[in-house]
Design goal:
Blueprint: E1 6-9, E2 22-25, E3 34-38, E4 44-48, E5 52-54, E6 71-72, E7 75-76, H1 77-107, H2 116-141
Length: 142
Amino acid sequence: MKKGDRVIYNGVTAHDLTRGSIYTLAHDYKNNGRIDLIDDVGDPHSVDFSDVTTIDEKSVSYDYIKPDHHKIGEGDVIDAYVKIHGSDGIRDAIGFLRLSDFKYRLRAGKKPNEPIEREIEKALECMRRVEELTNQIEVKTK
């Protein structure tokens, strides 16, 4: 790894670094077990070498909107909750998603290493799910 390479930080969220976010190497890796990453502000952060993965910007395929760790079987946490709680679960999920939409819009641009566009995409996904769940309620009441 060389100075300027882009890497994904996979360690514990600490040092003002966010797990899964992309950073720049501050210097060439010298095989000492530590490496410095540069954040968006230009500040260096020393981390364990084992906590970073090199990337090719064109090959980054991590889905920040529907990441694998949200998936449960064929759906996600919302789907599982609705399956367990039925109509009440749908109403609860709609409330949760509306609050999540509000949260993403309110903090857009405020999280380090999180582009405004990504937060807005998350908000839009929440409202898409609200529409989907609202349609389920309407179908059940007809």
